[in-house]
Amino acid sequence: MNNFDFYNPTKILFGKGRIADLNDQIPTDAKVLVLYGGGSAERTGVLAQVREALAGRTLIEFGGIEPNPRFATALKAVDLVAEKSITFLLAVGGGSVIDATKFIAAASKYDGDAWDILTSRGSVVTNALPFGTVLTLPATASEMNSGAVITNSEKGAKLPFGSPHCFPAFSMLDPEVTYTLPDRQIANGVADPFVHVIEQYLTYPVNAPIQDGFAETLMRTLIDLGPKALASPKDYDIRANLMWTATLALNGLIGAGVPQDWSSHMIGHEITALNDTDHARTLAVVLPSLMNDQRGPKRVKLLQYAANVWDIRDGSDDERIDAAIAATRRFFEELGIKTRLNDYDVDASGIDHIVGALKDHGMTALGEHGDITPDDARRILEAA
Amino acid sequence: MNNFDFYNPTKILFGKGRIADLNDQIPTDAKVLVLYGGGSAERTGVLAQVREALAGRTLIEFGGIEPNPRFATALKAVDLVAEKSITFLLAVGGGSVIDATKFIAAASKYDGDAWDILTSRGSVVTNALPFGTVLTLPATASEMNSGAVITNSEKGAKLPFGSPHCFPAFSMLDPEVTYTLPDRQIANGVADPFVHVIEQYLTYPVNAPIQDGFAETLMRTLIDLGPKALASPKDYDIRANLMWTATLALNGLIGAGVPQDWSSHMIGHEITALNDTDHARTLAVVLPSLMNDQRGPKRVKLLQYAANVWDIRDGSDDERIDAAIAATRRFFEELGIKTRLNDYDVDASGIDHIVGALKDHGMTALGEHGDITPDDARRILEAA
Known about the structure:
The structure is a homodimer. Chain A is an alpha/beta fold. The first copy, chain A, has two domains: 11-177, Rossmann fold (3-Layer(aba) Sandwich); 183-383, Dehydroquinate synthase-like, alpha domain (Up-down Bundle). The first copy, chain A, has 14 helices and nine strands. Chain A has helices at 40-43, 46-53, 71-84, 95-107, 115-119, 183-201, 209-231, 236-248, 263-275, 279-293, 299-310, 317-334, 348-360, 374-383, and strands at 4-6, 11-14, 32-35, 59-62, 88-94, 131-137, 147-152, 157-162, 170-173. A six-stranded parallel β-sheet of chain A has the order 2-9-6-5-3-4, with helices on both faces. In chain A, a hairpin with a 4-residue loop joins strand 7 and strand 8 (157-162). In chain A, helix 10 (279-293) packs across helix 14. Chain A is globular. In chain A, 55% of the residues are buried. Chains A and B meet through strand 1, strand 2, helix 7 and helix 8 of A and strand 1, strand 2, helix 7 and helix 8 of B. Strand 1 (4-6) of chain A pairs antiparallel with strand 2 of chain B, so a sheet runs across the interface.
């Protein structure tokens, strides 16, 4: 096992009716800015639950945060924080709203140009406003980690940052609020955590049976419950287990002490920056092709993945790897997620653009060995 | 899955050579009291590593904390904290030293009679001195939770308490410091976490595949690596995986959202209070007998345990349960831990004493259903 630091101070309040406990979690003297997205939080009644739980407090609201949240939108919220002397942020939404809130929390306490936060990957952040979250769309685990991704559409860039100052103070996870999500978002909320787990698991072995066993548990749970969640939208236990799986997929736990490979995410981000394809769908395109392309360096873990996640035990090594990749592709397709690049209208010139963007953004040494270059990404994308 | 809160702000610094990073973790203006046990921290050089990492600071030291740490000893440290205006505690040791440090941290900030902290199970604690730990003996997970157990030998009582104010700020986990541990303590450090996992797993199903899968991973790792750790004392990866398993066995994660049954611990504590038997050994005595006695209420999970932890899949339900209990007993015995009460010189009058003590300490409704009475404990102990 590799050396590691693990630190995650976010308090999770999980279960039915937990939004009612919101008042106890926010300092009584706080001036609160409630942030949300495009209107679903209003339509589904989650915002009404939040307002009721915080009745009697002065709340200021800021809606309209986009999926793949925009730098320019976040800056408007930063201005509002200053103007209204806000002391606490409350994100009500999914990963996009929470990611934007992290950026707003950091930028509100940053003296320089807020763009520095992204170009430095967060290293310039020394402080942030405290914030909590009410999660409405489980997928990204942003509710229990300190990372975020912000899109700058003018620059055609989608860039990640992270800081130990950007953990939510608390996150409310009520599985019932996910009953009304459209199938498309449920499917994304299964595929995205699945790839998060893979990026921390499918590298090379370092004798870490706990991290491997936890990762395999999360993947098996997603494979079992993903299709069932689409078939039975109001089954509490299915939604509860998916919600908790998505959080644990990227809260630092399974990645502690093991190598990681975030190349599917980095390549996928550039697809989203190109044409706004859903984040999870870009992963479903890149991952199977990348698994096939990297079957050499990832051989031992691909065989372990075949056996322990898919129960594939017959055939030669390459046959078992082929079967595991096919099962992965089928899993995405059965969730209604297409896995070929041309399903998303990306042609040869689109690939040129993506490869160029990887170079522009310094993504020239991806993978657990730092040896996946933009040219390798081109080959992976062409095969996809 | 049941509703739950999960909160664990302890920062873990894991791996080779991490004690050298100690200086960065303690506030520069802190006045530090270093707490340790009976001399092994000195003998093995861990205290020397701590002193070197904190060179130039004023350190005050307090040694002599017992296994099953004593109330009276802890109170002496509380006096020293006041006398020397200590602002930060550093526990260097195993569960006993860390448990004592938690109590000292809480008692140093408590105005009333410190005994209240134990009789209230910690509910009177509203504040505590900050503290960190350097773990030398992995077993109890005290390095990453907020609970502790203190023995009052005058009163013949061993009582637990817990408080959200009693999480370590950080814990240093260097597997290399465990190389010199005697076999007896390594064996205890496998058995104790194993039973911790069982107490959060072997109840009744609540549709929690993640918690179950994580628990099964931890148990399989202990079963695989426990005997190997005794055979190969300087294998880094074995020690590293055991150390991290012990921490994850009781840091709140696998118990979140599932029923728990701490009856083996509560009955075991009274055996230790009677004759100072090692904590882990009392568990190895009580657990197999309790599993057999409670095979009715625990039936479904016992069958899951047989299949997923021991790969026992043939035979009738009762035969598979019998085989799993026998495997559990054999696992303890192979670690060199006896599993019969008379191995520890407890006779009929000893059982009378234990049953009486359970009544005196209000342990009258144990188990996940609250229906294991002192009379049930008598039957379990007689069968043990």
